[in-house]
Amino acid sequence: MLEPVNSVSIETEEKRSRFLNELIPVSNETALKQRQAELRLQHPKASHVCYGFRYINEHNQVVEGFSDDGEPGGTAGQPILKVLQHHGVVNAAVLITRYFGGTKLGTGGLQRAYAQGAGAVCAQAEPTLREYRQLLIQTAQCDFAQESTLRRLIAQAGLCVIKEEYVADGPVLALEGTQEAFEQLINAPEGRLIRFSDDQA
User: Fold this and answer.
1) 3-state secondary structure of 123
2) How does pLDDT run across 21-68, given as a tens digit for each residue?
3) In Å, how far are 131, 148, 169, 199 from 141, measured between CA atoms?
4) In the 8-state DSSP scheme, what is residue 46?
C-alpha cells in the first residue's frame, strides 16, 4: 500500500466540462468533508464536488467511502474510489470539482470522466507516494537529568511526541512512529536510561 506525502492537483476536460482533480492526505472523513466545503466556497459556480477516500484507522483497518454530491448514483464517487483501490493508495482522498460544460455526459460518460480524472491525479502524485508503514504508540519515561538526551534521541529516530506530561521523577512522553524508529531509539547507547511502556496515549 502507498500513501501521499502532500497534495497534488491536475485539471482534465470532457466535452467542455472541466474537472479539477485533487489528491490529498487524509486520516479521517471529518477533514475530508471540511476540504469539500472549502472547495465549494472556492468554486461557487461549480456544479459538484465529488470524492472517494481510503484511510487506515486506529485498529489498522482500511476505511473507505465516497460521495456523488448530486451526480447520478454510482457515476462519480464510486469510480474515484475504484481508482484509489486499483492504485493501492491509502490515507488519501481524491476530490473532483466539476464545472458543467453544457453537454450532458450520460451515465457511462460521467463514470469515465471521473475515473479518468482520478487516474490522472494519481499518476501525477505517483512520484511522491511512499510505502505505508503502520505507526505505533509507545510511552517513554526518564529522569529529569536525561530529558535533553531523550528528546535528542527522539528527534534522531524520527519519532513524534504526541503527548507529554511531567511526574515526580521526570517527563513521560507518548511517542508515535514506525517499528524501525522505535528500535533505533531503544538500541541507542543511551537507550538504557529510558523506560518504555506500550500503554496507548
Assistant:
1) helix
2) 999 999 889 989 999 999 999 999 999 999 999 999 877 789 999 999
3) 30, 12, 9, 12
4) -
